[in-house]
Amino acid sequence: MSTPVDPKTKATSLIDTLPGNSALSKTGILATSTAAAIYAISNELYVVNDETLLLATFIGFMALIGKAIAPAYGEFARNRTAHVLGLLNEAREGHVNAVKSRIEQVSNLKDVVSTTKALFEISKETAAVEAEAFELKQNVQVASEAN
């Protein structure tokens, strides 16, 4: 199914997983851990029983599951991140377009003051003309009643 892994590559990857920066510190950590485990077992501080085998099996199973699921979850996370970024970029573009269109609408209204002043002058003239027309109409009615 899978390609065989070179033993040197496998050994290097195992050594790289140990904590520490140099080969000496990694070797020291590995040797100390092994010595502590041997000491605990030989002095019966820790007794290997069926629960130990169950724990080792559980940890191995979880590691296997993690190794199998990690690529699928990584792909899911990348796809989800790309989807959310796409939504955010679309929303940003929509907002930018809305702001630009609003700026264009407002720029069309930049002459609104002069237009309003002109309309006010026209309305004053209209009011004056209507007042004059009303006065003339009243004069005509008075003249027609007098006759």
TrEMBL record:
Provide a Gene Ontology MF annotation, just one.
proton-transporting ATP synthase activity, rotational mechanism
State which residue ranges cross the membrane. 52-70
Checking InterPro entries in the record gives: ATP_synth_Bsub_B/MI25, ATP_synth_F0_suB
Compartments where located: Mitochondrion; Mitochondrion inner membrane
Keywords recorded for this protein, A-Z: CF(0), Hydrogen ion transport, Ion transport, Membrane, Mitochondrion, Mitochondrion inner membrane, Transmembrane, Transmembrane helix, Transport
Which GO cellular component terms are attached? mitochondrial inner membrane; proton-transporting ATP synthase complex
State the similarity comment: Belongs to the eukaryotic ATPase B chain family.
Q: Subunit composition?
A: F-type ATPases have 2 components, CF(1) - the catalytic core - and CF(0) - the membrane proton channel. In yeast, the dimeric form of ATP synthase consists of 17 polypeptides: alpha, beta, gamma, delta, epsilon, 4 (B), 5 (OSCP), 6 (A), 8, 9 (C), d, E (Tim11), f, g, h, i/j and k.
Kindly provide the name given to this protein in its UniProt entry: ATP synthase subunit 4
* Organism in which the protein naturally occurs: Candida boidinii (Yeast)
